[in-house]
Design brief:
By secondary structure, the chain is an all-alpha fold. It has helices spanning 6-17, 26-48, 53-78, 80-98, 103-136, 162-207, 216-268, 272-311, 320-333, 349-370, and strands at residues 340-341, 345-346. A two-stranded antiparallel ribbon has the order 1-2. Helix 1 runs antiparallel to helix 6 and helix 7 packs parallel to helix 10 (349-370).
Length: 371
């Protein structure tokens, strides 16, 4: 399914394998049950831990990561029909563009497929490295620790054989978590990337109007079709935003706080292994956020570019009804459809910069207090 659309193929295939899309099988209930139980044991640990600040920060990061993972899985199941319809629409729009036989549009599709495939494989590779890092973390400690801080009521999880059993459980559940978290994130970014392609295809269509010999009736019909396609882009982006806006808001707030805490933790750890692990956590947060914010910002810019492309059609030489249609199109494109955080603020690189500035400000305050 969707094998010819490499942009989403790997992500859909993994989510389908685990029963989170299309197939309802026993693997869905296994991974969700185990992940939910794991989060509950992490919460129990955080409420009862007497670890130092380093352990609390590390396990808070892992807890937020797992809660985010489980939350995404349940939201994916809750909005299953909407996601399936969005994927179906993407497939239909993709083949519609492909059948145009336009060299520029075909190049855009080939390019986005390569980028999507590279991003999917790259994220899975980093996920693999993260799994290995979680498994090797206990080896860098002088006493018995688990990859994730967790507590089972009534059981001493550090005593044999409970420690060995729980350690194996953590090792086995980590790939499950990666397969629930990473494909979902990459799929959402892939939706945004295809929206960029749709915007560029519409801009190309508008730019080509000046070089085509069209009658007044044909020109009027072409402008109407461009407006209809523009509305399709707006509806497509609105659907993505509706499905992801609140999960992105939660991620923004949680990862912003954790990024500050991890920077503080980087200052107080005293072993090279722990420094490497903390740096890996920070890089993982930045990589996930930057990819999303980069393409969401590009989507917004390309939507604004539609207004520029419409203005460059020499609209002032057209008939008055056609001029009005183009002006309405320009006015609508100047209020670009975009992905938002909690339906409050558009996701842009400027917002990413504000996140980093705020995080660093709080980090310097913590550093002064600690000093």
């Amino acid at each position: 399914m969707f094998k010819d659309i490499q942009l989403i193929y790997i992500n859909v295939r993994i989510l389908r394998f685990w029963g989170l899309l299309y197939n309802r099988n026993v693997k869905r209930y296994i991974c969700l049950t185990l992940a939910t139980v794991h989060v509950l044991t992490q919460l129990m640990y955080m409420f009862n831990t007497d670890e130092g600040i380093t352990g609390i920060i590390r396990n808070s990061y892992l807890l937020v990561l797992w809660i985010n993972t489980v939350l995404r899985a349940y939201l994916l199941l809750h909005d299953q029909n909407s996601y399936l319809q969005l994927i179906s629409n993407l497939g239909a729009y993709y083949h519609e563009l492909l059948h145009l036989k336009d060299s520029y549009v075909t190049h855009l599709l080939d390019q986005v497929n390569r980028q999507g495939l590279f991003m999917a494989r790259g994220n899975l590779f980093f996920g693999l490295l993260t799994c290995i890092g979680f498994g090797l973390y206990p080896l860098s400690c002088s006493e018995r620790v688990l990859p994730f801080g967790s507590k089972i009521p009534g059981v001493n999880e550090y005593a044999t054989p409970y420690y060995e059993i729980w350690f194996v459980f953590h090792i086995l559940i980590t790939p499950m978590g990666c397969c629930m978290y990473i494909p979902y994130t990459t799929l959402c970014v892939a939706f945004i990337m295809f929206g960029i392609v749709m915007c560029k295809a519409l801009q190309h269509r508008l730019h080509c109007l000046n070089g085509r010999q069209l009658t007044r009736q044909q020109l009027s019909q072409e402008i109407v079709e461009c407006i209809i396609y523009h509305q399709r882009i707006i509806d497509y982006i609105t659907t993505i935003n509706k499905l992801t806006t609140y999960i992105f808001l939660i991620e923004f707030l949680a990862f912003g706080a954790l990024l500050c805490a991890l920077l503080f933790m980087l200052m107080i750890v005293d072993s090279t292994a722990h420094v490497a692990i903390v740096c890996a956590y920070i890089n993982m947060i930045l990589a996930q956020i930057l990819a999303l914010y980069w393409y969401a910002n590009e989507l917004r810019e390309q939507n604004l570019g539609i207004a520029t492309a419409a203005y460059e059609t020499e609209w002032f030489t057209f008939d008055i009804p056609v001029r009005k249609n183009i002006l309405f199109m320009i006015l609508r494109a100047q209020r670009p459809a975009s992905i938002r955080l909690g339906n409050i603020r558009p996701i842009t690189l400027e917002l990413f910069q504000h996140l980093l500035n705020t995080t660093y400000t709080f980090f310097t305050v913590l550093k002064r207090i600690y000093g």
